[in-house]
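Reference record
================
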Amino acid sequence: MTSLLPDPAAPVIVREVGLRDGLQAIARTMPTANKLDWLRGLHAAGLREIEVGSFVPARLLPQLADTAELVAAAKALPGLTTSVLVPNLKGAQAALDSGADAMLLPLSASHAHSLANLRRTPDEVVAEIGRMRALRDASGSRCLLEVGMSTAFGCTIQGAVEPDEVLRLLQAALDAGADRVGLADTVGYADPLQVRRLFERAFARVGDRLGCGHFHDTRGLGLANVFAAWEAGVRRFDACLGGLGGCPHAPGASGNVSTEDVAYLFASMGAPTGLDLEALLALRMRLAGWLDGEPLHGSIARAGLPKTMRMAA
């Protein structure tokens, strides 16, 4: 019988988002020196895509006010793709000035969430994508413009989000000038069947320009949803060391899928990620010290690696 599963030997890319998504969800501001140690520890553990911060006003997110410094340090690490979140044209200009390799613009599939999060409708955000693309092209920069489709699987404010609207906005973002797009379960509403169906439809619509899956473990289905997306053909995922992160419009959210759990999932199946699990677990222990008192999430750090573990990266 022919297996219906994808080739487990195909490489998987994990992008660490803790320095942005993780830190913006907690009130305290981590010292830059600790962030730099975290950044270098991630690189040493095999991460080759890291989202290091966001160019938003410091009065709104003082936790991320040192993003330009983080970008500069990241650019000194060999083979690392450095990305930053940008909410608008001003943020895009700051990203270009910093020399970041990629900038990520959030586009909500939920009209209500878009107004609450960015104070703009989804189509107004699409128009901003076009202006960002024009700015990027005029600068001569090769910075990648990626759009993350948030609330693609449901919204705590609006409720249901229609898949047809998600697909429309994916296409609109690409037509406006985005280089690639991804789907995000921002509030932890997705289930594996829903994930597989939407990613399959999205691949049919936009092909290999669909480049990322972003999942939260709010209701315990984070890794199951990662697996479902992998079955549908996704080979690049966001994750956060210690399962940090969350959304201000998702009360009770426990954060992103943890980097160490995602690394374990793929290592257990023999899918190469290039990640060193033991190094990630050691770095998580250091993170717990830097963020003493903040809850960390994830399973493999508590249970440990099984004796049957295949350690191929």
Remarks:
- The radius of gyration is 18 Å.
- The chain has a mean pLDDT of 93.
- The CA atoms of residues 116 and 171 lie 23 Å apart.
